[in-house]
Amino acid sequence: MKPNFDKYPDGLVPTIVVDDKTQQVLMMAYMNAKSYQLSLDSKQTWFWSRSRQELWHKGATSGNTQDIVAIQIDCDEDTLLVRVNPAGPACHTGHTSCFYRDIELNSAGGK
Fold first, then answer.
1. CB atoms inside a 10 Å sphere around CB 93
2. Which residues bind Zn(2+) per the record (predicted)?
3. Which of 34, 45, 58, 104 is least surrounded, with the fewest CB atoms within 10 Å of its CB?
4. Which residues, other chains included, contact 10 with Cβ-Cβ below 8 Å and sequence gap of 6+?
């Protein structure tokens, strides 16, 4: 079983990365067929950078690689959940997770 890369025009599948030990959501990125295969082959996360329009090996420059423990696919085969052992922070800001900022519900335009 593999993701349905043809479901979206750009061939990108949303990929949620979770720390396998803490269960903390670390980041969300996109994989295309090539980055998915590179991830399977190397057992480390690879993504497609939409801003740079190129393949991106997580941690290639920072050293904060992510060793893959498991990959799960959702029921529609169009979203991945990747469980990793991170070698450092996931966020380019140095935070453990890219999700480090809270939004106050009463000030977010809700009722």
1. 9
2. 75, 91, 98
3. 104
4. 32
C-beta separation of 27 from 98 below 8 A: yes
User: What pTM does this model have?
Assistant: 0.91
Token pair in block for residue 64: 């904060």
Check if the beta carbon of residue 64 is closer than 8 Å to that of residue 58. Answer: yes
17-76 per-position pLDDT tens digit = 999 999 999 999 999 999 999 999 999 999 999 999 999 999 999 999 999 999 999 999
Residue 8's pLDDT is what? Answer: 85
Binding residues for Zn(2+): 75, 91, 98
Cβ(48)–Cβ(30) below 8 Å: yes
Task: Specify the amino acid at residue 104.
Answer: E
Residue numbers in the known binding site for Mg(2+) are: 74, 76, 78
